[in-house]
Amino acid sequence: MSGATRHGGAGRRRKGPWAHRRDPPGSRPLVTPAALFATAVLVLAGSLDAALPSPGPTPRQAAPQDSATPPPDTAAPATPSPGSVADRRDAELDALTAEVAGRFRCLVCRGQSVAESSSQLAREMQREIRERLGHGETPEHIEAFFVDSYGEWILLRPPARGVNLLVYLLPAAAFVVGLAIVGWVVRARRPSEPIPESSPAPDLPDDALDPEDRAWLERAIRGDR
Amino acid sequence: MLSTLGYASVIAALLGAAIMTLVGFRAGLSRSGNAVGVALARRASYFAFFGMTAGMAVMEVALLTHDFSVEYVSRVGSLETPTYYTAISLWSSLDGSILFWGWILAGYAALFAFTRRREWSSFAGTPVTDRGLAPTLRMTPLITAVIGVVGLFFFGLLAGPANPFGLVSPAPANGPGPNPLLQNHPLMGLHPPMLYFGFVGMTVPFAFAIAGLLVGNLEARWLRDARRWTIAAWAFLSMGIVGGGWWSYDVLGWGGAWAWDPVENASFLPWLTATAFLHSAMVQERRGMLKTWNLTLMIGTFLLTMLGTLLTRSGIIDSVHAFTEGVIGPLFLAFIGVVAVASLVLISWRADRLHAPGQIESPVSRESAFILNNLLFVGFTFTVLLGTMFPLVIEAIRGQRISVGAPYFDMVASPIGLALLFLMGVGPILPWRRATGEKLKRSFRWPIASGIVVTATALALGMRQLYPLLTLGLAGFVLTTIVEEFVTGVRARRRISGRSVPGALLDLFVRNGRRYGGYVVHTGIVVVALAISVSWTWKSEREETLRAGERMAIEDYEIEFVELWGRDEPQRFVVGATFNAYRDGHPIGQQSPRMNIYSGGQQPIATPAVRSSLTSDLYLTLMAFDNEGGRHATVRAIVNPAIAWLWIGGMIVGIGALIAIWPRRSGRVRTAGDDLLASTASAVSTEASQRADGAAEAEREGELAVVGSGGGDPPTGERLAP
Amino acid sequence: MRAVLRWALPLAALPPLALLGFGLTRDVKTLPSALIGVQAPEFRLESMYDASDSISLADHRGRVVVLNYFASWCLPCIVEHPELVRLRADYDPDDVTLLGVLYQDVPENGRAFMRRHGGEWPSVVDYDSRMAIRYGVYGAPETFLISPRGRIAYKLVGPLDAHTAPVFRAKLDSLLAIGDPGAEGHERLESAPSPPP
């Protein structure tokens, strides 16, 4: 995948990066370096953001335990009275449950997390998560519990350990390498000289046109057909 | 009987493809060209298309008449399936979808041959041994031949391992019907065809690339046409992807539109590289640079469509789309391998013939912006490909199964998306070759101001999350640059022709559709980005069990449980819960999320009920219900703000693409001689465009841009071959 | 340099192709169990037949335990049931305990299921799938083979049928003969593939 441009003709020595640019005085070419810088900032921001818990949907008010197949018929519980300390803790717990549940794959429905899935097993897993969080277990401990039962496969984001690190590092490395290549390609060189009359057209095989055809074409290019 | 007829059609198509390939290569590779060969290759493509059309027709007839003696029908047909879903079950399963693919491929081959049909006859009298003419004229049969090779593969599959027309004897009385998930939504009639027209369409640019490499000569018409075919396929692919998201949203019940499922990713990858190509092609058009890179992109896009098909068909990656396994997987892999290696050999062999006469002169230029754009797109492609294939890598190394899911992809996609959004505003404003400080300040004054105002407003309104803030600010920035471009263009048009504002606007689209259609596409992308950002940030969700008459409030909506009902349908039993919906106190109708229970012991499939408006969607999913007395139901309600704009944005993108490739009428009839003139002329001298670049300053005022030359268009007016 | 690239470029295509080839060779539908070789999680669950009675895993220490997750709404469970009946008949109850676990279902349905399809062995009810989650169950039917010392020796995902039963029985027999394989190590990747639907 070579993105390098080549200049035709021999004997062009490479000069320093920004030399030979014929800029009018007072101009400041800022934008592309700014774009590169902005890209770098965004990538960094992305990595930082990844380290923090993502915003995501607002907490769901959890439903009481209920099943698709006939359960012992449970009555819908009364909604708690608003404003109590317990409610606020409840809402926080819901939010945390949703976040932790979002780390696991739903085993029944492909491509969804346990937080998103409507399948019964997913809801029971949520209940389990909620209880454990309520008992003071840390999310990492809960993660370890599920991984013990189901294997690493159940985590939607691969743990950044060992060989798994590749999936995090390689994209960043690819971008850095890509930026380096782009930088090398984009380094300003001398503006191209006009192609001399006698040299052949760069795109056609060298012996493409005889002089008569060539003259006809030149006239056509100049516009007097 | 239908079995035999169908199989015969496939054989006919196979024959056509063989002739296309053999005759096309012979005509194309000979140094002097061969008019008879070209005509024969063209007719062979028509013949292949005829064969495949016959095959498609036979299959549809077999499906609709429930002829279970035809093998494919016996596997996906069913007497209970409604007619619409029976008709579209043509592409619901492996062999039928390959038949569909083959038909579209033959269609593209025939269409391509049709657009080039006058080529040789225009040169009657001109000695075709003229070496100047030959490269151009050899291109067409070679392109046909390469499409023929791909056709040989697909029609060969149909004639062999993936034969949908096999005879089943004795014919069963009924069949299992298509997968229940595919019977839930009429969009199944639109999303696969759109996607396939996109995927298969990428074969044509690939053929252009191979033909160009074989001839050793890439001229302007070649590039211009390659780009147009790519835009057409790209438009279908974009709409197919958005349509897939819409289907997922409406059917799967989790309230989202994109899950970074491996096969979703597989459709996304060629879209990314095709978009990269559409941009870098402009650099090649204007400056003759990046030829090798563009060839790589064209070939890579095709390979990625093949890879996507491989992942879908084989059992390599497990996902919602995974159809089945068998010998087809290895065959696809072999085909991909051969094409990849052969293409790379060709590129290595020819690379030194593809010099560029110019170079990048300044890091602040449109060329640089496009190169950066390509970096981001290709980097994105690499990242998504890596994430999708990584479980496979880990399993090969460690023997353990891991998942790489949505959290990972969301994490990497967001910064890249934002960077691309930024470039979308910057790129069109930067002039070619070099930008100067004063020009930049003037061009960017309003966009930057508007971006800051939007961000500040959002901050003032309480938004604190980084990504949505950036998205809003950049959206303001980009939209302002687009508006500026239109304003400049309309003003210039009016000064020249004195037309009214709407008339001037129309003129812009008609005369310079590439540029302004492109701006419309960018607008669509901004709308999509905004929709994603807004709906994800302010989505809210609530789940409760309700008895009859009880209500639940969420955001500005309220729902009231009315009743639970059951309904027997031929292929399934449906349980539904009806809710009255209210918004700001006013009743807005009823919604009935459902649970579909299919015989056959599969898990019941929940169908959500969605009420859309421009501001937000109310999305209800039935989670559980009282099986005995029907007295209560558990419902999950999601309010998705602004998500309708995601689909609208997709449509805007499609409209923009349509504008971009709409054939324009020039003042006089364009002949093939003009084509040759244009192609050789611009090949001989990008110098001409470089001289024209001296007028680049004037172009920034919009004058030349709207007249139709410069601004990225080739020198003469544009029209598809007469 | 150019010449090197000429060869390097096409050759670079080979590793990804090889990876894909590898991908084709394995069956993506099987999921490795994380619990092979690990001590089976202890449980005490309510009996399906008598709500006042309960059964615990510890009660059966010293025997090989076949733990079968099933549900009345699960069609493959119906398919595998005769195989389970045969299994019960072929092995001495003093050596092998067959224990059913009712999953995402209610006792009345479970009892009706057993009545309808036959078979006499104890079953417990896994309310809220608590136990299923500990055992890494993601659907029914799934059958675990637990050694006399209480380790999980084998996990079968999907029904016990003509295709999977021989492997399962072979494992069972080896447990009976040897006693407790892999006491120190793990037996990795011991789940049999579930047949395609």
Could you describe the 3D structure shown?
The complex is a heterotrimer of chains A (225), B (722) and C (197). Chain A has six helices and no strands. Chain A is mainly α and 225 residues long. Chain A has helices spanning 31-51, 85-101, 120-134, 139-150, 165-186, 211-222. With 722 residues, chain B is α+β, with helices and mostly antiparallel strands. In chain B, the strands form two sheets. In chain B, strands 2, 3, 4, 5, 6 and 7 form a six-stranded antiparallel sheet that branches. In chain B, helix 5 (94-115) runs antiparallel to helix 7 and helix 15 (406-426) packs parallel to helix 17 (466-497). In chain C, the strands form two sheets. In chain C, strands 5-4-3-6-7-8 form a six-stranded mixed sheet. In chain C, strands 1-2 form a two-stranded antiparallel sheet. In chain C, helix 3 links the parallel strand 3 and strand 4 (96-103). Chains in contact: A-B, A-C, B-C.
Key structural traits:
heterotrimer; B: 722 residues; alpha+beta; Tick-borne Encephalitis virus Glycoprotein, domain 1; six-stranded antiparallel beta sheet; disordered C terminus; C: 197 residues; alpha/beta; 6 helices; 8 strands; 19% strand
Largest sheet of chain B: 6 strands, antiparallel
The residue fraction in helices of chain A comes out at: 40-55%
The average pLDDT of chain A is: 63
Give the topology string of chain A: H per helix, E per strand.
HHHHHH
Structural class of chain B: alpha+beta
Mean of all residue-level pLDDT scores of chain B: 84
Low-confidence stretches of chain B: 320-324, 666-675, 684-722
Q: What's the total helix number of chain A?
A: 6
Rg of chain A (CA only): 32 Å
Sketch the major β-sheet of chain A: none
Strand content of chain B: 5-15%
Q: Total strand count of chain B, please?
A: 10
**Which pair has the most extensive contact?**
A-B, 103 and 126 residues
Count of DSSP-assigned helices of chain B: 24
Summed up, what is this model?
Chain A is mostly helical. Helices cover 44% and strands 0% of the residues of chain A.
Strand-helix topology:
The complex is a heterotrimer of chains A (225), B (722) and C (197).
Chain A: H1 31-51, H2 85-101, H3 120-134, H4 139-150, H5 165-186, H6 211-222
Helix pairs in contact in A: 2-3
Chain B: H1 2-29, H2 35-64, H3 71-76, H4 83-88, H5 94-115, H6 119-122, H7 134-159, H8 191-201, H9 203-215, H10 220-251, H11 262-287, H12 291-313, H13 328-350, H14 366-398, H15 406-426, H16 437-460, H17 466-497, H18 501-511, H19 513-537, E1 540-547, E2 551-554, E3 557-569, E4 572-583, E5 586-591, E6 594-598, E7 605-607, E8 609-612, E9 616-625, E10 632-641, H20 644-661, H21 672-684, H22 686-693, H23 696-700, H24 703-707
Antiparallel strand pairs in B: 1-10, 2-3, 3-4, 4-5, 4-6, 6-7, 8-9, 9-10
Chain C: H1 2-12, H2 14-25, E1 44-46, E2 54-56, E3 64-70, H3 75-90, E4 96-103, H4 107-117, E5 123-126, H5 130-134, E6 142-146, E7 152-157, H6 165-178, E8 191-192
Parallel strand pairs in C: 3-4, 4-5, 7-8
Antiparallel strand pairs in C: 1-2, 3-6, 6-7
